[in-house]
Specification:
The chain is an alpha/beta fold. It has a single domain, classed as TIM Barrel (Alpha-Beta Barrel). It has eight helices and ten strands. It starts with 10 loop residues before the first strand and ends with a helix.
């Protein structure tokens, strides 16, 4: 009997949304979530908290909204979220394990996404440890060890074999980020088999969200 191959459609998060117009483009294309980048030490996509509030408001009930924050102190993160009112918080830097319980207690119903920057095999142990405290792991290609931290938006891929090991060994959803674009998305999905995909610079032309790249990415993301 021939093997039955089922199609597989990862959830897609369009990050670095700049304004309401880009949010509408991402939503209309089929995004499951949009990413709103607050102040960062480096990297693209940063917008004001006023803009984050505006975009999050029009997205209510339509898509998940992720507040990307480089803050690591629970009190400061809670205050920022209370200003921005997103449905989820993406922690792009390493957070002390004790801070997670404070965040869950203060923000019930708000999903916590922890970014793990895949720099080597040590990232596997890091992801395993953190997975007990958060709702989602997101694998990216930054480098927090640099003098000016890289916490996302690098446009670089990382070692997908390590990402696949993380996907296979933890029991919560895993998003894959880092250098994704319409040309490599099929290979990424078939290699890592993540729950979701996170993309920023790979869908932009001269810094603006490109509707052709956006639609191409969605059409190529579905993989047997």
């Amino acid at each position: 009997m021939p093997k039955i191959i089922h199609s597989y459609q990862p959830k897609i998060k369009i990050c670095c949304i700049q304004n309401v117009e880009e949010a509408e483009m991402a939503i209309n294309a089929g995004a499951w979530a949009i990413g709103l980048v607050s102040a960062m030490p480096s990297g693209p996509g940063v917008i004001s908290e006023e803009t984050i509030v505006k975009v999050a408001k029009i997205a209510v009930g339509r898509v998940e909204t992720f507040l990307l924050t480089s803050l690591t102190n629970a009190t400061e993160i809670i205050a920022q979220h209370n200003r921005c009112k997103t449905s989820a918080i993406q922690l792009v830097d390493k957070v002390d394990l004790l801070e997670y319980s404070k965040l869950h207690a203060a923000l019930p119903g708000i999903k916590l996404i922890q970014v793990i920057h895949v720099t080597g095999n040590e990232s596997i142990a890091e992801a395993l440890e953190v997975s007990a405290f958060v709702d989602v792991i997101l694998l990216d290609s930054g480098n927090p060890a640099l003098e000016i931290k890289e916490l996302g938006g690098t446009g670089r891929t990382h070692n997908w074999e390590i990402s696949k090991m993380i996907v296979d060994n933890i029991n919560i959803p895993v998003f894959l980020a880092g250098g994704l674009n319409p040309e490599n998305i099929k290979t990424a999905v078939s290699s890592v088999h993540p729950f979701g995909l996170d993309v920023c610079s790979g869908l932009r032309t001269h810094g603006r969200l490109d509707s052709k790249k956006l639609n191409s990415f969605f059409s190529r993301a579905e993989t047997p």
